[in-house]
Amino acid sequence: MAAANIQAVFDIATDVAAPWPAPRGAVFSHRSQYNAAEIIKSLAVNIHGPVKRVGITSRDITLPFLTYVFGEARIGGNAAVISTHRLQLPCNGIIPEKSLVYTRLSKIAIHETGHLMGLSHCKSSRCIMNFSVGLDKLDTLSPVLCNECKVRLNAITKR
Amino acid sequence: MNEFEILIVDDEEAMRESLSAWLVREGYRVTTASSGPNALDSLEKHLSQLVLVDMRMPGMDGLELLREIKTAYPEVMVVMITAYGSIESAIKAMKQGASDYLLKPFDPEQLIVLIEKLAAQRALKDENQRLRRCLSEQEDVWMEDLLGQSSAMRAVFQQIEDIAQSNTPVFITGETGTGKELVARAIHLRSKRLFSPFVAINCGAVTETLLESELFGHERGAFTGATQVRRGRIELADTGTLFLDEVGEISPRMQVTLLRVLEKKTFFRLGGSQEIHSDFRLICATHRDISALIESRAFRRDFYFRINVINIDIPPLRDRIEDIPLLALHFLEKFSREMGKNVEGLSPEAFELLTKYDWPGNVRELKNVMERAVVLCKEPTVKKSLLTFLRPERQLPGEGGLEKDLIRLSDVEASHIKHTLGACGGNVSKCAELLNIDRGTLSRKIKKYRIKK
């Protein structure tokens, strides 16, 4: 589903790869969380040409200075990682439906791929590249780029 | 890309890299340094607006770096990043000038909100500085013609400084061309109201009906031609200064209306029913002899007492001859620069001529004379020949030549007034009656010719 949405939004061919092992030393033992930066480094190994790799994990991921992240990617990087861990946590005692979790996952996948394509965060509250903190905010975003981000993306890809 | 620049200082490469990448995604310009000394080197080469400093670093620790940054670059904002265990050091850092601190690990929202808040603060500070620079430039432009070394002008400058901060009404008197509006603006620019408007109106330049509309504004349909609501000068001066120039020209009827506004600070637009409040400081000015106007009932005594709480009397230029060379050179340099000419000074004879002249038009006249001189001057020095149109009013002892035999109309008038006043025993009203002129006019002429009663 993530691959289909990435393909639809960015008009690029996608493929689903075989499972990827979590890198050793990527876990913050005292926090029971995985270091997203280390996972990205591992995913970026042996990438040749204009290929981008997006990893999806059910583990909770974060960065050394943050409490959590839904996903992580560097601008113009080769790899990104997304976690479904917090996308399926119960909210007010209600477990979210699978379809909602998939929608959230797709949105994060599009957002992180946008970074890989060279886009930074967008100020438009409707754009998928808007920085979303919390699931409530994520649920309000449309899984599409705003016109400004489309123009920026067009300029980047033409370079 | 955001113009706000951030320097990250952390000895851990992973931390530097991930925080940097994260902030770049937010659109900020980011540089990194692995130690305190490296950070100081980086700031020396390129000044970031915000520095994120890890508290624990080998060698120079976060607190030491904070002190160094605040000493060398006090305008740079510093945010300390610390672990939960060292909250005491974070508080210490805040006392030493850190803008804020973050306890690791922090929520993504916390970091973004904090940086956005600091960036907004910085933008506000920059805007504030820009406005202050703008105001200071504006002040320079306005104040550059208000020059003087004479004791009389020094007293005026001192008075401006003394009263600027209060809200008391000021009444500026002085002959035409002495710079009454410049003094009014100087008071405004030195007051707490400097960021608010300075609204000036020349009461003598408009008819009474127009003045009423100008001052109070009008509602739509208040009179023929009032097609839309218009805010008056009093309303526009809210939180600022209202300058009524040539206040002596206001009719007694209008004075009554204004008196009510000055007392209550509220008024109605013409044709309006809604009371409008305006908090303004009032400065009035006139070149006329107000006491004579009061005596002739052309000016209301109660209105005069209301506006004349503090009086600043600007001396005429002829009474401060020592300021003439200073002002002449100032205008010469100003016009020379504006016209792209190389006029550097005046010949001693030209200076002498300027100091002998009576300057009935005061500083404004001197300014115009210097502008004319720069336009016509073809040499670096303005010679006396360019100023001969100025007939010296004041004869120095032992001088005269051809002009000595000529009698000017003003001399005849002064002599006649002096003679008649003497015959009336110094009674101005009686003298005015005999001369068949208005008492106010006579008082002005007595002052002009400096005739002792």
From TrEMBL, chain A:
Question: Which GO molecular function, any one, fits this protein according to its record?
Answer: metallopeptidase activity
Q: Which Pfam families match?
A: Peptidase_M54
State the superkingdom: Bacteria
UniProt keyword terms in alphabetical order: Hydrolase, Metal-binding, Metalloprotease, Protease, Zinc
One GO-annotated biological process of the protein: proteolysis
Which organism's genome codes for this protein?
Desulfocicer vacuolatum DSM 3385
This chain's protein is named: Archaemetzincin
The cofactor required is: Zn(2+)
Q: Which InterPro entries match?
A: MetalloPept_cat_dom_sf, Pept_M54_archaemetzincn, Pept_M54_archaemetzncn_arc/bac
UniProtKB/TrEMBL annotation, chain B:
CDD domains (alphabetical): AAA
**Localization per Swiss-Prot or TrEMBL:** Cytoplasm
PROSITE patterns on file: RESPONSE_REGULATORY, SIGMA54_INTERACT_1, SIGMA54_INTERACT_2, SIGMA54_INTERACT_3, SIGMA54_INTERACT_4
Report if keyword DNA-binding is assigned: yes
Q: Which SUPFAM superfamilies match?
A: CheY-like, Homeodomain-like, P-loop containing nucleoside triphosphate hydrolases
Which Gene Ontology CC terms are recorded? cytoplasm
Any idea where the Sigma-54 factor interaction domain is?
A: 146-375
This protein is called Two component, sigma54 specific, transcriptional regulator, Fis family
Q: From which organism does this entry originate? A: Desulfocicer vacuolatum DSM 3385
